[in-house]
């Protein structure tokens, strides 16, 4: 049962990481790309690590994976915010749709 639940979580995590990669390629400006990578990649990584923790079962490796999950949960949003704030202060303006 752990294998099935772990595999589903890992598959969902990989899906969100792929969506984040597509968002980085397809979105029009720096801030939209940063938003896509920050949100979807964080969720994808957390789902993948949760799936690995479930797959491993209750042991020391799962505890380490849970600690990594908590670190990612706090570090990725803060890092995204710091990068976007630095870009805005540097002068990178958000994309605006042209009037036709």
TrEMBL record:
**What InterPro entries does the record tag this protein with?**
PhaG_MnhG_YufB (IPR005133)
**Cellular location(s):** Membrane
Q: A Pfam family name for this chain? A: PhaG_MnhG_YufB
Give the family, as the similarity comment puts it. Answer: Belongs to the CPA3 antiporters (TC 2.A.63) subunit G family.
What membrane topology is given? Multi-pass membrane protein
Q: Which residues form a coiled coil?
A: none
Q: What is its main location?
A: membrane
- According to the record, the signal peptide region is none
For the keyword Cytoplasm, the answer is no
Its keywords, alphabetically, are:
Membrane, Transmembrane, Transmembrane helix
Task: Cite the GO molecular-function annotations of the record.
Answer: sodium:proton antiporter activity
Residues spanning the membrane: 6-28, 40-60, 66-88
The protein in question is named: Multicomponent Na+:H+ antiporter subunit G
Keyword Ion transport listed: no
């Amino acid at each position: 049962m752990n294998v099935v639940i772990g595999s589903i979580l890992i598959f969902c995590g990989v899906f969100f990481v792929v969506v984040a990669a597509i968002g980085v390629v397809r979105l029009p400006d720096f801030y939209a790309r940063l938003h896509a990578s920050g949100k979807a990649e964080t969720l994808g990584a957390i789902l993948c690590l949760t799936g690995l923790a479930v797959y491993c079962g209750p042991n020391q490796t799962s505890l380490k994976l849970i600690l990594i999950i908590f670190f990612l949960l706090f570090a990725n949003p803060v890092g995204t915010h710091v990068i976007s704030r630095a870009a805005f202060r540097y002068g990178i303006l958000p994309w605006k749709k042209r009037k036709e």
